[in-house]
Write a structure and sequence with these properties.
By secondary structure, this protein is of the alpha+beta class. It has two domains: about 1-65, Ribosomal Protein L9, domain 1 (3-Layer(aba) Sandwich), CATH 3.40.5.10; about 70-145, Ribosomal protein L9, C-terminal domain (Ribosomal Protein L9, domain 2, Roll), CATH 3.10.430.100. It has helices at about 25-30, 40-70, 95-105, and strands spanning about 1-5, 20, 35-40, 75-80, 90-95, 115, 120, 125-135, 135-145. Strands 4-9-8-6 form a four-stranded mixed beta sheet. A three-stranded antiparallel beta sheet has the order 2-1-3, with helices on one face. Strands 5-7 form a two-stranded antiparallel ribbon. It starts with a strand and ends with a strand.
Length: about 150
């Protein structure tokens, strides 16, 4: 089944992408939740016209993402967590805590764009990947310390 995404879907694609997905995924999830529409000939024409009109706006969003990435590339965050005497964290440090650390540093980063390879369950230094735009990805170092 060929679809056109109406919004960004994590691990699938970005708004305006034309993709082939399995019939059940498109029919039972993407289309009913209004995340996609069927890629008919008329829908493709409408998408082409819409992309022409949005080209300038998309370029400004990309430039803003590049500018933010330049500011964040040398930043090292400090995330506090409650720990045991052996250095193990009660729970885990996730994207929400990292987004809060960005807020304290003076940057606004949505928690949904923060990707961690593994669960952070011990004190130490780690790296998080930020997917700020479909063409702009950056790694930011952060350190987990005991509170």
């Amino acid at each position: 089944m060929e679809i056109i995404l109406k919004e960004d879907v994590i691990n699938l694609g970005y708004k305006g992408d034309i993709l082939k997905v399995k019939d059940g995924y498109g029919r039972n999830f993407l289309i009913p939740t209004k995340k996609a529409i069927l890629a008919t000939a008329s829908a493709k024409k409408m998408l082409a016209e819409d992309l022409k009109q949005r080209a300038h706006k998309l370029e400004s969003l990309k430039n803003a993402a590049i500018e933010l990435a330049d500011k964040l590339k040398d930043l090292t965050l400090t995330v506090g967590a409650k720990t045991s005497t052996t250095g193990k964290i009660f729970g885990a440090v996730g994207p929400i805590q990292i987004a809060d650390a960005f807020e304290k540093a003076g940057f606004t980063v949505d928690r949904k764009v923060i990707l961690l390879k593994d669960a952070v369950k011990e004190i130490g230094s780690y790296k998080a990947t930020l997917k700020l735009h479909k063409e702009v990805t950056i790694e930011v170092a952060f350190e987990v310390v005991a509170e």
